Amino acid sequence: MSRKTEVSRQLQKRAEAMIPGGVNSPVRAFRSVGGDPAFIVRGQGAKIFDADGNEYIDYLGSWGPLILGHAPPHVVEAILAAAKQGTSFGASTPAEADLAELVLSAFPHMEKVRFVSSGTEATMSAIRLARAYTQRKFIVKFEGCYHGHADALLVKAGSGVATLGIPGSAGVPEEFTQFTLALPFNDGNALEQAFAKFQDQIACVIVEPVVGNMGCVPPARGFLETLRGITQREKTLLIFDEVMTGFRLAYGGAQEVFGIRPDLTTMGKIIGGGLPVGGYGGPAEIMDLVAPLGPMYQAGTLSGNPLAMAAGVATLRHLREHKQEIYPRLERLSGKLVTGVAEAAKKAGVAACHNRVGSMFTWFFTAGPVTDWPSAAKSNTEAYGRFFRAMLESGVYLAPSQFEAAFLSAAHTDADVEHTIAAAEQAFAAVRP
Ligand code: KE4
Predict the structure, then answer these.
(1) Active site residue 251
(2) CATH code linked to domain 6-70+323-431
(3) I need a surface site. Which of 190, 199, 276, 292 has the fewest CB within 10 A?
(4) Which of 125, 243, 269, 403 to mutate to test the pocket of ligand 1 (most atoms within 8 A of CB)?
């Protein structure tokens, strides 16, 4: 063990005396990969630095928000300038419409958007809105997809729920999930059967158009088209949860890449540029049901917070202005990285496969292919843990769970990718059975 970890270990002990598991979000606890979490004290570009002075090439990017890398100067300047004017007013500010204009410019189907402070709030609100609009109760989600921790969505969820291997969550009465139908991802027949059984009762289908929360799993050919066709026919709202894919896969997210228009879109992560912002949007006909215009209530003290809006506006303006070079470069560099590491696994005789869409990807420790939760769950999470820890020793920070996506940012370089591939060649030697 060459990496110094003493200071992080002490910080972990201090934190866990006051905070459950020492973390404010479970997946940060390294429970499924082993070892003590590195306490991060600084980020710059593609790098993060921990309390023991170790440097890492960061492929987590705060779980997706940091597509421009850590502390982009123009984003930091925008936050500082906003902070000098005051941090929050609980009143309308011009920046909220600035961010709304940028979001609407990315999603042609969207006529109105409401900002909240997390992806969880965005999906929770979009589902309430779908139920208000359709006057129906049932919702459909897919096994292995994660849409935040609202009660009704903690059913066969991905991300931390899958990582911790728990069926859902304690404290959620079955009455709260009785209207949630969890179906197999990439299975159009299962969806047809659900609609046959619950005819005219399903308010919405919510889906990660490219799943990140069972690890990266793309939609099977035609699956999104099937979702769109069935929901259109059944007058059910289709919600694309683009909290992770929005502005990640393209400026217009997965719906731009796959050419499918949902009824509602939920957003988060990148639209806050690293500060807490979520959002949900769609046609005015649906969005005008939201209070104060309509009867569907949703609110938030810090919704539209000026600092968060400033960070989001600076981030999206940069992405919109430079999208012609940013996204092709992310595609090239991500392809080089994922293929290089996959080749290292093959050379080492390690059973692994991978999925990648744009700059979100996962290497699975199973022969694969991984197309849904059952196939993802076949992964050898113990081997992933050894790989994760070996990469950490080589200064590479991956997602601390097999069932998460990793991300590349505009700040990563070819040198970073080459270092990572070399580190993987060593790491697979440690993983080999
Ligand atoms: P937040 O409430 O964490 O901002 O967003 C919830 C959410 C909703 N929808 C999708 C597709 C998401 O990926 C997320 C959150 N993603 C996880 C990582 N897979 C956040 C990391 C964490 O829970 O700490």
Answers:
(1) no
(2) 3.90.1150.10
(3) 292
(4) 243
Ligand 1 atom closest to the Cα of residue 118 is 4
Residue 28 to residue 21: CA distance in whole angstroms: 9
CB half-sphere exposure, 316, CA atoms < 13 A: 30
Kindly state if the Cβ of 243 falls inside 6 Å of ligand 1. Answer: yes
pLDDT at residue number 165:
65
Select which of 241, 263, 372, 416 is catalytic. Answer: 241
CA 369-374-376 angle, 5° bins: 50
Give strand pairing partners of 360: 357, 407
Q: How far is the CA of 159 from the centre of ligand 1 (A)?
A: 8
The tens digit of pLDDT for each residue in 156-188 reads: 888 888 777 666 799 998 889 999 999 999 999
Across 146-154, average pLDDT: 95
Reading the block at residue 335, the tokens are 């392809």
pLDDT of residue 1: 56
Q: Please state the domain extents for the chain.
A: 6-70+323-431, 73-318
pLDDT digits (tens, 9 = 90+) for 344-400: 999 999 999 999 999 999 999 999 999 999 999 999 999 999 999 999 999 999 999
Beta strand pairing call for 264-267 and 237-241: parallel
For 73-318, CATH number? Answer: 3.40.640.10
Q: Reduced to 3 states, what is the DSSP secondary structure of residue 379?
A: coil
Average pLDDT over residues 31-39: 94
Ligand 1 pocket, residue 119 CB under 6 Å: yes
- Atom 1 of ligand 1: nearest residue by CA position: 119
Neighbours of 298 (CB within 10 A): 17
- Residue 44 has a CB neighbour count (10 Å cut-off) of 14
- Nearest residue to 113 via CA among 350, 278, 352, 301: 278
Q: With beta carbons less than 8 A apart as the criterion, state whether 51 and 199 touch.
A: no
